[in-house]
Amino acid sequence: MTGTGQRFFISYAGVDRPWAEWVAWHLERGGHRIILDVWDWRTGDDFVRRMDEALERADAVVALFSKAYFEDGRWTGDEWSNAVARRDRFIPLAIEPLTNDDVRPLLASRIRKDLHGLEEEAAVAALREAVNGGRRPTEAPPLPVPEAEEAAVAEVVAVGAADKPRLPGSTGRPDVWNVRRRNLDFSGREAQIADLRDGLLGGEHSVVYALHGMGGIGKTQLALEYAHRFAGQYDLVWWIDAEQADQIPVHYTELADRLGIAVKEAGAEHNARMLVQHLSGRSRWLVILDNAEDPDQVERWLPDGPGHVLITSRNPNWRRLARPTSLDVFARADSLAYFRTRVPGIGEADADVLARELGDLPLALAQAADMIERGTHVDLYLRLLHENTSPVLREGEVPDYPEPLAAAVAIAVEDLDGKHPDAAALLRLAAFLGPDPIPTEWLVDARERLSTIPAQTDALTWMRTTLEPLRRNSLVRIDGSGFQVHRLTQAVLRDQVDPARKEAIRDDVAAVLASVTPGDPETPGHWSAWASLTSHLVSQHIDIHHRPELRATLRGAVNFLIRSAQPRAAAELAGTLRDTWTAQLGRDHPDVLTATQFLGHATSDLGDIYGARPIIEDTHTRRRATLGDDHPDTLQSANDLAAIHTRLGLYSVAHAMHQDTLDRRRHVLGDDHPDTLQSAANFAASLYRMGGIAAARELDEDTLARRRRVLGEDHPETLRSALQLGEVCFELGEVTEAHRMHTEAWERCRTALGDNHPVTLGAAGCLANTLAEMGRDEAKSMIEDALDRCRRIYGESHPDSRRATYTYACVMFGLNNHEEARRILVDLMALQRSVLGRDHAETLVAMNQLALTLSELRQYTEAVRLLEDVVAWRSKAYGEDHPETLKPAFNLGAILYEARSFQAAAAVLEDVLARRRGILGDGHKDTQKTVQVLTATYKRMGQNRKAQKLTAKKSTKSRFRKKSR
User: Fold this and answer.
1) Tell me, what's the pLDDT at 145?
2) CA-based angle 459:465:469, to the nearest 5?
């Protein structure tokens, strides 16, 4: 193949890797440089970066067109397809018959060269023509003599014939082949097949590769797909059922007979040894040992030589003989793709629920797909799965698996009962925990209290020796600090345990969980330990919430879920505990009231403030009656009730409650108690809302200093205090200090809490608003990211999402993108009205900001109408002298001024000034700002004497720049 040494990037679908290697090999032999992912990219590389680099470096893209190439999941959007297809040189090669309907519209008009259906020499010639192009002859072509062209091509074909990739499909199956039919429903596992191919090609001599994993994980199916996909690259492929190792010589004898080297009189052992020796002297062979379990018994039958051995096994202990690779359950995307293929028309949500409940286990997915195909509705299947797990997992015809999942688990456990009863007992205990990893230290710590696990003499090694048989049979997955049992294995085991034994096992489970002490659930440093514990406490099959020894642990778990921003899980667990404990202890028991308190908190965090209010009020009432007004639990309920009043917009009521709670907590608990600091922060926020900004700053500074000392710099409540103080600084015009505080708090939030925690998202909003005030464009991307996260996590109507939306509008306002701010605020107002009502405080805040925005767009009439409504509603709710009433009243006067309605502006501003002087005094910044605007108004009205009395100081243009707060 001739050429000028171009650099080609090979673009292909994973299933077409044999074609990609064949094309790449021949192009490289023709003097070109090749970029092929499986040759040039390493595990762990950034795929997107590698792709960008490859497209940048390549002179041309060679695309292997097949139906798989155009599957929906491969093409991630126009950006990628444009990058590939709209290059100066794009060379499409069809490797299977295609119609234009099979090809993406962007590429359908491209002239493509067919490689499929050709003999190898013809395919090489077609490849060369596609790359080099045809040329117009300079003289009359000679009478065609195919032999000359074929000879030139044959020379390339012949070079390195022993090592080069074969043309896929050119030879069909090898002459020596006993592999059963291909599984037409096989899907997914592309990365694993690529890794397997790389591993088998990774050595000059015999390469032994061991796929291991639990039953039903798809080891055999992966080996089967590999054998069929790469059949053309081998001269010999032989499949052996190796579960009974003593039968391997018999299977080898069959292969020896097929090769004509068997001696009938010599017996199986002799012929098997002859076969192993024979394979050491030839290449291009693949032997598959399916379900091999004992490495020691298999070792003597592993051939040497330039071929490949592929082992499938439940036993992971192959490292001495092979390259072991653990096969895990499907990635969720592969599970969904499988259901779409097997059950056309299934909804994405149904497929996702099925995959989750089945733990993405391929065999279970196949059984479920068969039952649904035969008429079982998804909802009915899920109900049956929960109620009768073992019978359901015996149903569903899956010819490509030896037995259904329930039977496979039962057989394995029966074998364990006979050989390793301690391991079987541990497995059953694990079945009554959750499906997440189980730290081994839990079992070690509780060992003396476990009645269902046989006693061990060696306390130091009992955990390791008990787990080993489970690991060897792939019934558990072990990492450095714990082990995990698949959820369906657990379900089958639970079904097989008799009621009396179940109760004893649950006693042991309670003993294990009660012995775990993760630390303070409100401290982020302990959250990973709490997450591990809580995942088991909330398991729907655990049924131990009624046990007294677990009450403290369960209370801590709910508190952890609330503090770590998992309100839905917190509400579910708190509701379960309230109902369970009420039946046991009565409605007024302290533990019941604590569970109810948490339920109210979680309900509020979910955005249902109207649902949370009666829960919190009832808890507060009961605690006052049973514990007294000054009990710490009662004071916590008082704090929660004040907070819910704030969220309902009842600021005056909330202010009085926060002040009373703070006074009581200081008296009962002391100034530095975390509960007292909670009330101090809440009262400071209330002072801020009520216009007492100087007092708010003083209290915020004191609270932040105390929280840093008591809780630490990175505690969520400390970070909240820092953000709150930064907001006060911003309101006072200290933008540089606000920026410093918000930046530091946001960075600490990201490190301590993660990007999706509500405190972090709130910090991002604060910082974005500060950046917008400073005129910095990065404010936009920051608030866009925070808003997107809020909506994705909580939904559009959640309070946090609504606040982020409002902040986004303020940022757009601050960056002078007034039309975008208007659009956002119109939508937000409609949402606020539907969720909260027309006169809720948050609705009025949005109306006020929309009026300011409309003013910038010179839509004065609508702006004035909105502000008149805001002033009227706030006057009714708070009174005419309240700071929250005077703010929109001042804005109304300023906008009337800009609309040149000077008489009306003066009337409004005179009233605002009189009230602010009486409440705030002449020196307050809000009073001074009112003086400035009213002075300008008088001047425009020609009333200079009045203006002089007010002592105007600055030009009108800069005097009252409207802020977005």
Assistant:
1) 39
2) 155
Cβ–Cβ contacts within 10 Å for residue 694, how many? 13
Domains 7-158 and 176-326 share a fold: yes
Tokens 């767009």, located at residue: 857
Quote the pLDDT of residue 205.
62
Domain ranges of the chain: 7-158, 176-326, 332-401, 408-515
The whole-number pLDDT of residue 532 equals: 92
Please give the order of strands across the beta sheet that includes 477-478: 438-439, 482-484, 477-478
Cβ 912 vs Cβ 871: under 8 Å: no
> Cα–Cα distance between 192 and 328 in angstroms, integer?
10
CATH topology assigned to domain 408-515: Arc Repressor Mutant, subunit A (1.10.10)
Give the integer Cα–Cα distance in Å for 317 and 128.
48
The angle subtended at Cα 462 by Cα 470 and Cα 433, nearest 5°, is: 55
410 by DSSP, 3-state: which?
helix
CATH 3.40.50.10140 fits 7-158, yes or no: yes
Pairing mode, strands 236-241 and 176-177: parallel
Say how far apart CA 227 and CA 221 lie, in whole Å.
10
Q: How many C-alpha atoms does 856 have within 13 Å on its Cβ side?
A: 22
SS3 content of the chain, % helix, strand, coil (to 5): 65, 5, 30
| Helices 190-200 and 219-229, axial angle in degrees (round to 10) | 70
Question: Which pLDDT does position 534 carry in this prediction?
Answer: 93
Tell me which fold the domain 176-326 belongs to: Rossmann fold (3.40.50)
| Partner residues linked to 113 by β-bridges | 93
CA 195 to chain centre: 25
- Residue 534 one-letter amino acid: T
153, amino acid identity: V
In degrees and rounded to multiples of 5, residue 299 shows phi and psi of: -50, -45
Identity of the amino acid at 505:
I
Query: Quick check: 842 and 646 in contact, CB under 8 A?
Result: no
End-to-end CA distance of the chain: 71
Q: Which residues of the chain fall short of a pLDDT of 50?
A: 2-3, 76-80, 82, 86, 143-162, 953-965
Residue 265 CA: distances (Å) to CA of 262, 271, 447: 9, 10, 59
Q: What percent of the chain has pLDDT over 90?
A: 45
